[in-house]
Write a structure and sequence with these properties.
It is a single chain. Strand 5 and strand 6 (68-72) form a beta hairpin. It contains 1 helix and 7 strands; from the N terminus they run E-E-E-E-E-E-H-E. The chain is mainly beta and 110 residues long. It has a 7-stranded antiparallel sheet, with no helix packed on it. The chain is globular, with a radius of gyration of 14 Å.
Length: 110
C-alpha cells in the first residue's frame, strides 16, 4: 500500500523483520528526506532494495560511513539487511519513519 500525503508517504508493513517495533499490517508515515538532513543513528528508515529496484526496505539505521548506510532489522532472525546486503548506497534512501498507525481492529483478523 502506498499513499502520498504531500512530502510524506504512508506505507504498510509487510514481513516480520522489524518486530517488535513494527508489526505486519502496521502503517507508517514516512517523511521524504530530499534536501533535509540525514536521519540520526537509530532512526527507522525506508530505502530502495539495492538488488531489487522495485522493493523497499524498512530498517533501523545503525551506521553511516563512506560505503553507505548500514541497516539492521529489529528482528535479526527474520531480517534481510546489511548483514547479508552490506552497505546500502545513500542515494537509495527514501525517508525516515516519523509515525506509526497501529493495526486497526477491523484488520486484525485478516
Amino acid at each position: 500500500m502506498l499513499l502520498f500525503c504531500g512530502r510524506r508517504l504512508l506505507l504498510r508493513i509487510e514481513g516480520r523483520s522489524m518486530q517488535p517495533t513494527l508489526e505486519p499490517g502496521d502503517r507508517v508515515l514516512v517523511r521524504r528526506l530530499g534536501r533535509k538532513p540525514a536521519p540520526g543513528l537509530g532512526s527507522v528508515v525506508v530505502t530502495w532494495h539495492p538488488q531489487h529496484s522495485t522493493l523497499r526496505l524498512i530498517k533501523r539505521l545503525s551506521r553511516m560511513d563512506s560505503n553507505g548506510l548500514w541497516l539492521l532489522g529489529d528482528n535479526p532472525a527474520e531480517s534481510t539487511d546489511s548483514r547479508q546486503l552490506g552497505a546500502v548506497p545513500t542515494n537509495l534512501l527514501i525517508g525516515e519513519v516519523v509515525g506509526r498507525l497501529p493495526l486497526g481492529e477491523s484488520e486484525q483478523g485478516r
